[in-house]
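Run folding on both entries below.
>entry_1
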Amino acid sequence: MSAATSRAVVPAVMAGHFAASFAALGMPPFFGLVLEQSLHNDARFLAGWLYVLPTLFAALSSPWWGRLADRYGKKRLLIRAQLGLAASFLLAGFATSTWTFAAALALQGLLGGTFAASNAYLATVASGPALARSLTAMQWSARAALVAAPAALGLLLQAKGSSPIEVYRWMALLPLLAAGLAAFLPAGGAAHRAPGRAAATSAPELSARGVYLLQFGFVFSTVSTFPYFAAHVQQHFAGMSTAAAGLLFGLPHAVYLVAAWPLTRWSTRGRRSRWLVVSFAALLASLLGQAVAASPLSLIACRLLMGAAMTMGFIALHGLIAATVHAGNAGRSFGWFESSSKWGAVAAGLAAGLAAQSWGLRAPFWLAAAALIPALAGLAVVALRRLPSGSALPTASSSPFSLPSSSSSSSPSSSSDSMGAPACTRPTPGTQS
């Protein structure tokens, strides 16, 4: 596939993912309203647990769907994911009990997986730095949905007189449109690599296992506050509307939309592991600030800082994982990458639900900040122990994030990820499938 065709494919995949993500990412902040007004259930902790359900089943199914994508084709599995999402939305829209709604959310996780499927497909049309930029673009579409959907759905729920759960019925049309768009995409093949660029591609900084672990910790700390943010700000700032809470929820994601592209270019100037140290520290500060914010203005400042931290963190993680992926292992690699993200969200939702029920709506912020401390300390040690550029890397025994030693990495087929994922070693130039 030519480079021009590859560049044209990325916007189409982004558009499809945005459409499919609108309800999946926009409705969870309003699960409290769905429980109270549509399902007549006042158990507050269920909002966090319902948030976890699709994430849990996505964590379980993502590696499996990834293996099937490598075997049967990334495009086919992308269309399957869009259709599965539409079916689950329809079931959610007609749910009349908490159990039925929970079943629909479980199917959303089991049959969906559009983000991993989209990324795996993109690995057939891009590689290396181009793939890292494509992953940033995909995260851009997800952040766009998180900005637009809560605000738009908040206004819709505020103006609409019928049951909030009925919104899902209309949202089912969006993944159907995305599936139709995906049907017109090229089948994909080996990623195009510009002449002379293969040899210049840098070696991976961290092992795939290390990237999965960092993704888990990063997602845990960002997601812990999601299900309870709207309720928290409306409780502590009297008179704040649902629409305003939705706008504040989307503010960090708006920062990503503005800053992702320039920061992507800047991030290539240094090691991405050091970027992660900065992003983790900024995220920690923003979470502590949100927990004690005394005014809407201070809360806005902390949400902006959180957005900057999320932007730096996602860009660094995308670069780190892109360095380990090629077209042949893209389904498995992104399946496990997405699975680590989902497991982080599962743990966050369960822990935040218990914390909010036991200690109030501020508790998820304290929980997220506390979880970052050991992750930040471990990451800082790894970044500081790395030798200057051109020197030998630490051995595999130095840290769970380190690359295998040269003696073991010479035979990719003999190694495996500790989480059961395949080792994501970079192919030698000229051998990429």
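>entry_2
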Amino acid sequence: MSRWPGAGWAVRPERIRIAADAGPVDAANVNMLEGQVSKSIFAGNNSTYFVERAGQTLKVIVQNTGADRLAEGQDVVLRWSPESTVLIGG
């Protein structure tokens, strides 16, 4: 980001994949951060997870598919595609 002083980036919460482990890397989801679930909210067909990482809270929205839900306090990996990243500010 040094090319754009003061710039940041954003990713829409529903574009982030969340999992208990990193799994295989594919071209569609090369960006990765690790964190810990601080709060989870089950809301019918969606779940919202708040993930703590390096003093920041990230929000992730996932569609409920019947797969196991992640627990509060659980370590997780967040992944998203480069196309989902938006440059802001700067």
